[in-house]
Each structure stands twice: as C-alpha cells, then as structure tokens.
Amino acid sequence: MKSQIKVANANLADCFLQLILIANTIKKLPSRGIVEFHQHCIESFNKYWDKFDPKIYILAYFLHPAYRARGLKAVYWKTITTTAAQIWQNNGGDRRSCNRLLAQMRNYELRKSPYNQKFNSHLETPMSWWLTIKDKYDYLPALAIMVFSITPHSAGCKRIFSTLGWLYEMESNYDVEELIQQYSLDNELEGNTL
C-alpha cells in the first residue's frame, strides 16, 4: 500500500480504495486469541475514518475512469451528485451549468460518448484521460480535473496510512474486481465505521 499511495500521481480515489482495503484487512483479522488487538485495530481505524469527510473521496472514486463507482450502492448517487453540485456552485457554476453537469454525470455513468473511451492505468492517469474528453460543454471534465488536482497529502491521511499500513502487508494485492466481489464498499460507508 505504501508504494501505491506514495506514487506521485496518487489521487483521492486511490486513497479511498486503500482505506477500504485496510478496513477489509482489519475485518479479516482473526479475532480468536487476539480479541483486544482486533478491537484496537477497529478503534484506531474508526478514529481516523471519523476525521475524513468521505464525500469528496466517493466523488473521486466515481470520477476515476478505472473505477466509475463500481461496488457502490445506488444510494450513493445522491452523495456523488450533491457533492459535485456543491463543488461546481462553489466555483462559480450557475443553476443551468449545474444541470448540464449532472446530465453529463449520467452520461458518464452510462458510458455514453464521449465518456465511453477505454482507460489504461499503465499508460495514462485519470487526469490525462479527463483532459482528452471533449463534450459540447466541458463541465464534467472541468470538475474531474478539479477533483484530480487535489493532492492527498494531508497529515491526517498520512497518519492513517502510517498507523494502519502494516496491516495491508498481510494481504496480497487485490485488483479492483476481486476486491469488489469479496467485500461490498457499502459495508464500510453505511455507518462510516467498521
């Protein structure tokens, strides 16, 4: 995990996915014989999770062309669209452009043109992918570029990964598909705790 997060082009979606991986690892820890340790891990994770506002991370996860909110339940659509609309309006967007932005988000989710382009994580970044998207109104690409311009380097984020990062070493690397099959992201987000 450390190498994944310390990559220069790490983004909020990557951090979100790593947090879910850590939570998954903690849940899989055997509790027999080490109940206190297991409980300590859960409490430590929850302590740091509570300091996060996951809405921007969920939006970034949605906007990441490799993830596109896979594994999130439909109930998070409201969180995604509300967060996008708030960011858009806080950056000078009016009601009309916000409505167009939301329409573009629906087209993106449905993979309608121009949002149906493939993404290759070995050859491009989410930022470079979004920079190539051309729509009549470039509202969604502009929002995505804003979100992917946020560098996840806050002290709180670093503290979580340094405190709990070793847990990830006990698990093999998952690809996104395998993770989503094994563990529903909804479990972590419903109560914002394990």
Automatic annotation (TrEMBL):
Domain HAT C-terminal dimerisation: 124-169
A GO molecular-function descriptor: protein dimerization activity
Name the UniProt record assigns to this protein: HAT C-terminal dimerisation domain-containing protein
A Pfam short name: Dimer_Tnp_hAT
Cross-referenced SUPFAM superfamilies: Ribonuclease H-like
